[in-house]
Amino acid sequence: MTAAPTTTDGVLVDRYGRVARDLRVSLTDKCNLRCTYCMPAEGLPWLAGPQLLDDDEIVRLIRVAVHRLGVTEVRFTGGEPLIRPGLARIVGAVAALEPRPRISLTTNGIGLDRLAPTLRAAGLDRVNVSLDTLDPARFAALTRRDRHADVLAGMAGAAAAGLAPVKLNAVLMRGVNDDEAPALLRFALAHGYELRFIEQMPLDAQHGWDRSTMVVADEILAALRAEFTLTADPGERGAAPAETWLVDGGPARVGVIASVTRPFCGDCDRTRLTADGQVRNCLFATEESDLRAALRAGADDEELARRWRAAMWGKRAGHGIDDPTFLQPARPMSAIGG
Ligand code: SAM
Ligand code: SF4
């Protein structure tokens, strides 16, 4: 076991020796879709304006993470990050940090065709766009909004703006879109996008997740192998959540993020900041650490860094979804930042 951190330790290390270098920042808990596995039709009680970090507060906390805590990768998410008005300004400020972190964005893609050139110019490196189905009617049922064409346009716009490689995230749900794995891969290959399937996790606001019916990695891989040859990717996986395979000999790849059936907690290098300034050491953490209160009370950068380190030190060894004692976190994925 590693010794407890002191105020002069630089990095975000936990008691199991894992070092967090990848920061996920939620820019808003709001969204313009209502994916059934994520939030209810009526939406959620959104954070009120004063609860949200403003743009300068967000940039300050990211600066602390990069300058004092060894963060090298910043991923913006939400909710839907593209609906945050200051997004390009925030990206620009983060891209100006020294050393410059890699900057990416996870989005549902709506409006990305219009925003991609501005975000690219501001310093955004890459995007992950969520697409669960190729069928517009299914998309409308799954997201409760008729915006399929906007998402496809968003992906194309991202690729055209040089936000490469465009990665696609797909969640398969039993009886909804679980027959689409090969078709989604065909689509991704045809467009030069890199597809990753994500196992559905117990992070929905409605608590509708069911372990016994979820679509698992083995099933997704079997469906893909009916049409494609998948071979182990010789590349280093490192702390990446996706396990990847070469498709038909490569160089195209497909990935599966099997958080539930093949957990990768032992290699996790992530730390999270919510839109209201709470540090979370895990998606599944049941405790948060309030950096917004400290920041607004006048804490200096080193004090913020100290609190962040202390929050990460307490990270649990694993998410424990399969433990009988598992408790779903109080906040849903859309409020934590997926
Ligand atoms: N709105 C953006 C989007 O949809 O990409 C960013 C936030 S969303 C919470 C991030 C990713 O989490 C999406 O790819 C989404 O499909 C995925 N997601 C949401 N709820 C999930 C759940 N319960 N289990 C697994 N993935 C989930
Ligand atoms: Fe919105 Fe993303 Fe949740 Fe869908 S998964 S409702 S797009 S936050």
Which ligands occur here?
A: S-adenosylmethionine, iron/sulfur cluster
The number of helices is 10
Spell out the helices and strands N to C. EEEHEHEHEHHEHEHEEEEEEHHH
Distance, first to last CA: 29 Å
Tell me the domain tally.
Answer: 1
Q: Share of helix among residues?
A: 25-40%
**CATH architecture grouping:** Alpha-Beta Barrel
- The CATH topology label is TIM Barrel
Identify the overall geometry. Answer: globular
Let me know the average pLDDT.
Answer: 94
CATH homologous superfamily descriptor? Aldolase class I
Spans of 5+ residues with little confidence (pLDDT < 50)?
none
Radius of gyration: 19 Å
CATH class: Alpha Beta
Structural class: alpha/beta
Report the count of strand segments: 14
Strand content: 15-25%
Oligomer state of the chains in this structure: single chain
Strand order of the largest sheet: 9-10-11-8-7-6-5-4-3-12-13-14
What is the gist of this entry?
Keywords: 4Fe-4S, GTP-binding, Iron, Iron-sulfur, Lyase, Metal-binding, Molybdenum cofactor biosynthesis, Nucleotide-binding, S-adenosyl-L-methionine. With 338 residues, the chain is α/β, with parallel strands linked by helices. Helix content is 29%, strand content 17%.
